[in-house]
Amino acid sequence: MTTASIDFGQSNGWSTVALHGSLAPRDVAVVRDRLLRLVAAGCRHLVLDLSGLERCDAAGFAVLIATRRHLASRGGELRLVLPAPGTPVRSALSAFGAHQVFDIHPTAEAAASDARPAAPLQRRATAREHGARASVLGAIPRQRG
């Protein structure tokens, strides 16, 4: 497996970032830093194309969550393109709940040309408010219903 490589672009007013290779522990810090610097530099609409990933673990998924949260805190939106169905990365992202958390599109072009506005983030109750232990996904607000 290769280390992560990142390609940047623009389409229909959206910044596009394609990740290739591995989004595993040794690559996470570099990818997280580059994505968060992009948001800090003013990016508000980001399409993250993961179709070229060969590996993504929980640490990689946490980078996706952090990026979405940083964008949302600045009034922005993150859209994802997942790898092909049946691939190990698609299976892992599905197991992590990517479809419940992110706005998923079949291609970067489709994501950038989707004119639907971002759905408002919905606040989820915390475990303390329910007096119970919340699941990891239960604590993450969804972008679209």
TrEMBL record:
InterPro entries: MlaB-like_STAS, STAS_dom, STAS_dom_sf. Residues 4-115 form the STAS domain. Residues 123-145 are annotated as: Disordered. PROSITE patterns: STAS. GO terms for molecular function: anti-sigma factor antagonist activity. It holds the Pfam family STAS_2. PANTHER family: ANTI-SIGMA FACTOR ANTAGONIST TM_1081-RELATED, ANTI-SIGMA FACTOR ANTAGONIST TM_1081-RELATED-RELATED. This is Anti-sigma factor antagonist. It comes from Kitasatospora phosalacinea.
